[in-house]
């Protein structure tokens, strides 16, 4: 796969972020930034982005909030996936080899091997509890669902027609660059992820094992993986403690006799949690701010 030219990159984002996107990505043609009038999850976004490609053109879908440090390995995996798309057809997702029993990611159970590192998907599994995540890790049959995809444009459009016809019917004739037309259509389309709408329903889904370090930076444990454990410093005192991650704000923090904990000091409050429960921070946010 050749490295992408800016003119080949399409960004689909909420209308509130269009100007910020232009500032962050000045190399992109302005018409390549598609404004969504309403938040409708990832399935409609994938559909309108894919519509802008030629029928037989491969489309690589990448969420904007992931961190991939080894760019060369990333492109090697993309090359492998592109070859597999040409050979086998279908909709491809990328599975990350788990490094811990993570409860914040969905998982993919690999099925029949098509070739080294390329499998059919046996099933998708929702975010598990900790014990289930440990079993997934021990089995060696499960990969993290990265939320990155590769498909031929026409094949994806046809699968949406079969799996989630409401999206297809309301968006098939809409020009994604026509905001008013998009607004009328988006009022009618369901709000649903591409995973639920298509990938978990299609009979044509394959998975490529992604051989690179990846994080969706979705919780403090992910940040800790990127930055490493905290060492003692002027604002952090560690006594009989190990494997801790500390973010001080405006006062020193001392950790005594603890391990595998995360401590985050902010102007709005202090978070203290065991690292294995980092995903539960969203419950704290819901309780503090009464969000649904």
From TrEMBL:
GO terms for molecular function: mannose-1-phosphate guanylyltransferase (GTP) activity. One of its GO terms (biological process) is GDP-mannose biosynthetic process. InterPro entries: GMPP_N, ManC/GMP-like_b-helix, Mannose-6P_isomerase_type2, NTP_transferase_dom, Nucleotide-diphossugar_trans. Residues 235-288 form the MannoseP isomerase/GMP-like beta-helix domain. It comes from Thermotoga neapolitana (strain ATCC 49049 / DSM 4359 / NBRC 107923 / NS-E). Coiled coil: none annotated. Keywords: Nucleotidyltransferase, Transferase. Residues 8-228 form the Nucleotidyl transferase domain. The keyword Transport does not apply. It comes from the Bacteria. PANTHER family: MANNOSE-1-PHOSPHATE GUANYLYLTRANSFERASE. This is Mannose-1-phosphate guanylyltransferase. The keyword Zinc does not apply.
């Amino acid at each position: 796969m050749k490295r992408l030219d800016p003119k080949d990159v399409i960004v689909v984002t909420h209308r509130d972020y269009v100007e910020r996107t232009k500032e962050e990505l000045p190399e992109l043609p302005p018409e390549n930034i598609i404004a969504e009038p309403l938040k409708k999850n990832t399935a409609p976004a994938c559909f309108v982005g894919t519509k802008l490609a030629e029928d037989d053109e491969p489309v690589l879908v990448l969420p904007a909030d992931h961190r991939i440090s080894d760019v060369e390995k990333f492109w090697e995996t993309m090359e492998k996936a592109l070859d597999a798309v040409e050979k086998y057809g279908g909709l491809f997702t990328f599975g990350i080899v788990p490094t811990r029993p993570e409860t914040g990611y969905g998982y993919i159970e690999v099925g029949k091997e098509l070739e080294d590192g390329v499998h059919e998907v046996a099933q998708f599994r929702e975010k598990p509890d900790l014990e289930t995540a440990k079993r997934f890790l021990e089995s060696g049959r499960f990969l993290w669902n990265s939320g990155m995809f590769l498909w031929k444009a026409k094949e994806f459009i046809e699968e949406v027609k079969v799996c989630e016809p409401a999206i297809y019917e309301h968006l098939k004739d809409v020009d994604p660059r026509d905001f008013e037309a998009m607004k009328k259509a988006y009022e009618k389309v369901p709000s649903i992820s591409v995973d639920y709408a298509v990938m978990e329903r299609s009979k044509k889904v394959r998975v490529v094992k992604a051989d690179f370090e990846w994080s969706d930076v979705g919780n403090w444990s992910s940040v800790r993986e990127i930055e490493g454990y905290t060492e003692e410093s002027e604002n952090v005192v560690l006594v009989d403690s190990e494997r801790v991650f500390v973010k001080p704000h405006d006062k020193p923090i001392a950790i005594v006799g603890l391990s595998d904990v995360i401590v985050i000091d902010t102007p709005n409050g202090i978070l203290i949690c065991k690292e294995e429960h980092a995903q539960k921070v969203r419950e704290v946010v819901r309780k503090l701010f009464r969000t649904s």
